[in-house]
Amino acid sequence: MKTEGIDGIERFTSPGKGRGLRATKHFKVGDLLFSCPAYAYVLTVSERAAHCEFCFTRKEGLSKCGKCKKAFYCNVDCQKGDWCMHKLECSAMCAYGENWSPSETVRLTARIIAKQKMQPERSASEKLLLVREFEAHLNELDNERSEMNQADIAALHHFYSKHLEFPDHAGLTVLFAQVNCNGFTIEDEELSHLGSAVFPDVALMNHSCCPNVIVTYKGIVAEVRAVQEINPGEEVFTSYIDLLYPTEDRNERLRDSYFFTCDCKECTTKSKDKAKMKLRDLSEPPKPEEVRDMLRYARNIIEDFRRAKHCKTPSELLEMCELSLDKMGAIFEDTNVYMLHMMYQAMGVCLYMEDWDGAMSYGEKIIKPYSMHYPAHSLNVASMYLKLGRLYLGLEKKSMGIKALKKAIVIMEVTHGKDHHYIAEIKREIQQQK
Ligand SMILES: [Zn+2]
Ligand SMILES: [Zn+2]
Ligand SMILES: [Zn+2]
Asked: Which domains are present in the chain?
């Protein structure tokens, strides 16, 4: 298959950024620039039974693989379609039982290797960028990252050697580094993690903290829509990271995971930083070193909490949130993003514990400042309205629920497109209230 390209966009060399994507025609807010089927993808283990492994459709009553009883499908067609990938894991999951534990990166990489073997020529996901052209940034990996890659390679050999022929060790080292820099996580409308995938053409886009497009998913297809006007000749930018945080934090994250520093308008002007780190209006304002110490505490607690999530009980986690909110609240305003971060975590724990009132009260505190800190048409804001709306409806607060869901729809009509099945579902939820 020869390169056919995509109408309205082209690959180009972006000054200072290497390759990138630019528009060759005008796009208005909400327009679809392009869509890209996953080159390879994998459903996350915790979403099994809720989603079809092959097409990611979410519904009840999926039928399971008779052999491993772990993979679920819409029907025989989906099961047949998935077999070339599922067979990499089906018998291994039976053989290893409880001890079957490859990371999601390993699972995805195994599928990439299988796909490369099955289809060596350019795929429909690679109209502008090939998987083998992915950046690896091998020389920039720190020790921790290199060790993780080596552990992943070992796990790949351990769990997948029966059905796969691997590239040599050097080839695998490059491949894992490529997957780490270019992999996507597929999320649902509430931003819950559904799986991991590679979308080569989507990976061509460079990053900006004021992105002009957003990536959403329809099953296993990524869709890229304009969230700002884009004129012919302009570069197309997506965001690689959560845009809630101040400039310094964003760039630390970008350097850590993607090995560059951002020079977008927001990173240069830092126009939102002050509001994002807002202090309380106290009669005696805190000393600069007190603020510095609190910032350090905030960044540490975020990291501590991230680690604690894997080992502590929900009530221990909730206590951790409450304590940190108390402590930071002495200096930080409720709209401060570090406060919002911990409130968001607390809301997540409450939802997990089915403490709907607790979740609702955190959500109510989060939503307004979220809308202020995030750019217009933000998935984070839409998903917060959605969670809040669904909570309200569950708590019989009908009109508040409908109002919140409608706000989510307004954003999602731009980010997901008016005909997305998520929007149809939300409209049905509203209809059922009437
Ligand atoms: Zn299916
Ligand atoms: Zn199976
Ligand atoms: Zn930036």
From this structure: 270-431 (1.25.40.10)
